[in-house]
Design goal:
about 100 residues; 4 helices; mainly alpha
Length: about 100
């Protein structure tokens, strides 16, 4: 049953998936199989929706390989939680400035 707002029907926004992009449920299932969280699957899905299912300038050829790479490089949100800032901090006290 659709909600009505000021006499107009509520139509949920449907986001078109770029060509070749797997359904969100398939990405979630693969992420869970790999030991990742549902949040991680949604993060990669949102990234693909925002960037047109591409890695850099090239279209994604193997989306499972993208998940493996993101996991190996620790790019998923669940892998970043609790990590310290990785920016380089120079200890200037040992230099004569």
């Amino acid at each position: 049953m659709n909600k009505k707002n000021n006499g107009q029907e509520f139509i949920p926004e449907v986001v078109a998936h770029p060509r070749g992009m797997p359904p969100t449920d398939a990405v979630k299932a693969e992420a869970l199989r790999m030991g990742l969280t549902e949040e991680d699957a949604l993060a990669v899905t949102d990234h693909w929706l925002a960037n047109g299912f591409r890695t850099g300038r090239n279209p994604v050829k193997d989306w499972r390989a993208v998940l493996r790479t993101w996991k190996r490089e620790k790019w998923f949100p669940s892998q970043k939680k609790g990590q310290k800032d990785r920016t380089a901090k120079t200890d200037w006290s040992k230099y004569d400035c």
